[in-house]
């Protein structure tokens, strides 16, 4: 669905059924679990084919996860510390309420960065649950996360003129910059590898020369 369609209908994209938070969260959790060769057997069937925004959210969440791996891991461990108690909506929301909030915004907020942080966190929680085959709990996490995100979107996005189209534009920039950073890092390590191999080759030839000199003197 594009901007022209939204302009034609007069309805913001985040109110369209194709862009429901449940579809985004279910899609991300299912893909994140599948990335590790696991399955979420209770994943709801798709009512619509994924939009570009679904792919952008997936890619940006994976970038966020790599950059914040330790912090996210600690949050997951904190949430799942007590294996004998179930994860309730309130206990889960208590964790989300302290994640990635902007100081200059109200209590109920859903900036793009926070949307990404919460989705990435939900994916890691689901991954941990999938390893223990807690299928129903994964479904609970998907519902809790979607409800929480939907509340923030409906309350804040109309006021601050946010949209999934705006998110896609921002996400494309993040992905482009990350790819450039990855390419630079790859070139850097490629250069270091060449230097290491070069130094190793020099050391080998010096060693061979020294050994030859001793043998044939």
TrEMBL record:
Transmembrane spans: 195-213
GO cellular component labels: mitochondrial outer membrane
Domain Apoptosis regulator Bcl-2 family BH4 stretches: 21-40
Gene3D superfamilies for the chain: Blc2-like
Motif BH4, residue numbers: 21-40
Cellular compartments annotated: Membrane
Any GO BP annotation: regulation of apoptotic process
Family designation: Belongs to the Bcl-2 family.
Name of this chain's protein: Apoptosis regulator Bcl-2 family BH4 domain-containing protein
């Amino acid at each position: 669905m594009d901007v022209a369609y939204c302009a034609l209908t007069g309805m913001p994209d985040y109110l369209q059924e194709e862009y429901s938070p449940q579809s985004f969260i279910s899609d991300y959790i299912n893909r994140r679990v599948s990335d590790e060769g696991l399955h979420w057997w209770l994943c709801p069937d798709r009512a619509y084919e994924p939009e570009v925004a679904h792919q952008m959210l997936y890619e940006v969440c994976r970038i966020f996860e790599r950059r914040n791996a330790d912090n996210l891991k600690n949050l997951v461990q904190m949430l799942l510390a007590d294996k004998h108690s179930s994860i309730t909506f309130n206990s889960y929301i208590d964790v989300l309420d302290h994640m990635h909030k902007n100081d200059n915004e109200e209590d109920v907020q859903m900036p793009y960065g926070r949307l990404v942080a919460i989705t990435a966190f939900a994916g890691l929680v689901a991954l941990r649950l999938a390893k223990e085959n807690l299928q129903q709990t994964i479904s609970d996490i998907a519902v809790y996360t979607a409800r929480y995100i939907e509340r923030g979107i409906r309350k804040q996005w109309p006021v601050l003129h946010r949209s999934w189209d705006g998110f896609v534009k921002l996400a494309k920039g993040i992905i482009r910059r990350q790819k450039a950073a990855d390419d630079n890092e790859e070139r850097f390590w490629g250069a270091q590898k060449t230097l290491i191999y070069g130094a190793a080759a020099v050391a080998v030839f010096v060693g061979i020369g020294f050994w030859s000199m001793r043998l044939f003197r």
